[in-house]
Amino acid sequence: MAKIYHAHLWGSREDKYQYLLENDITTVEWTELNPQSPFYLFIPQNTDYKAEYEQGWKITDIMPVNSTGVKTHRDHFVFDFDLSELRQRIAKFRDINITDQEISEIYNIQDTRDWKLAQRRRSLKTNLDWKKYFTQCLYRPFDCRFYYHHEDVVELPRHEIMRQMMMGNNLAIGVGRQGNAVEDILWSLISVSHFPVDTNLFRRGGINIFPLYLYPDTKNKQGSLFVEKTPNISSDFISTIKEKLGYIPTPEAIFYYIYAIFHSPTYRQRYAEFLKIDFPRVPLTNNEQLFKSLSEKGKELVELHLMKSKKLNKLITKVVSNGDNTVTEVTYKPTEQRVYINKNCYFEGIEPNVWEFKIGGYQVLDKWLKDRKKAKRTLSFDDVLHYQKIVVALKETRQLMSEIDRLIPSFPIE
Fold first, then answer.
1. Among 354, 315, 324, 358, which Cα is nearest to 338's?
2. Is there a domain that residue 266 lies in?
3. Model confidence, pTM
């Protein structure tokens, strides 16, 4: 049986070169590995809590119907901050009086292996219901954009899942399978949406979308018009949670409980080794009061992250501007707790720990502004208000995460 050894080296390029000059295979401090099923990792792993962690339910076993997010292959064309601009683009795309060459040059759209411009334009032209496909999409954390959800312009629309998010007031958990970047302290690949979700919502690892409810596909005659939505929760999980609690909670209560668990800092730190390599697992409690308390905290988090919480109306920042809200720079000054978007305009009252808050590898407040800087966007009144509400949401999220940890007596959860 072959033996496997591992070593890693952190530092600058110059330091690494120097180390390699001074060492060879015989002088490197190697660590012998014992890769185990199912991942057979070629890196060291702390397995102290592995057996404990694996007692939890993998999210894919709880909510079996799921998929990756939308992959458009042409974001610049199907997403926009402005609905009217997006409508004009799609209308021109359908206008066959404009040549394919012109459309290609105007919008920088090229054929791919599975998508042909000429064919798709003519297909959308014949669709009399083409206006029904304008919607919104969660593109980046706290950043919903207008979106045209149609297979004639979106290469991988993931319709089997995304249609669930366009059928009434649905909810979905978004979870990343891969772990965090080296610089991230804790796992944070978790989000929530009631719109379709872009696959690159997180900076690394992509995202899988788990809708809470499933609706019958009446368009394709799969089911009856009178069939109600059904929870996307496996029967095995329902049986287990009933054994634990003595009753079956509502689908929403289960959803909120899961969302709270995934926001526990202790959970993220204790199981960091395993969150790096696979979908997260949910530990279940047999304590009814603990379940209800965590579910309530999860609901508060969801309302914050969907921008529906009443707490968002109590703004904690002020805006100083000379009337020009164009984002030409993004500069944070921690001593003043200000983030400048140009020389004369800034948001004040943003604490450093809120400014640094990350979701999915993105520093939320920084990313939101830099995307608008890239687009040379001037912030509207609604944009400014939305950004101020994000600040509130992040501060409240930090508080709720601490409260969740205080509720849980210890790990493993009992």
1. 354
2. no
3. 0.87
